[in-house]
Amino acid sequence: MAREYNSKGKNEVIAYLKAHNEHRLTVAEILEGLKEEGISINRSTIYRNLDRLVESGDILAFKGKDNESAFYQYSGEHKECNEHLHLQCNSCGKIFHLEHGFVDDFMSRLRKDCKVELDVSKTMLVGTCEKCLGKN
Predict the structure, then answer these.
(1) Is 0.70 surpassed by the pTM of this model?
(2) Buried-exposed string 104-128: b where 16+ CB fall within 10 A, e elsewhere
């Protein structure tokens, strides 16, 4: 069994992501945010800890549009986040976990009518949340 250990860098990274749990962030955004909080940490430490946190399920990783960039988000109670769809607000960046019956119905219709199995772990819907719609 692999030994679990806590380090200052790991604790800082997870605390930052936890404090911003409604958004997915790039390594550059995490690095900049930690610097703004007065925390000195290097990029390689962030990457190393993100890899471990993704492996443990504490952090979720999403691929960017280019399939090269990555985004990270604190998982909280959504450690098994590969079983439902996600929607990101294109205005504020907030991520919504779509764990509703209509999503199951949609997935079932895709399988039945289109003969397609959607890989939800690689799928991010984009829209505008109610809060941001009210700003317009």
Answers:
(1) no
(2) eeebeeeeeeeeeeeebeeebeeee
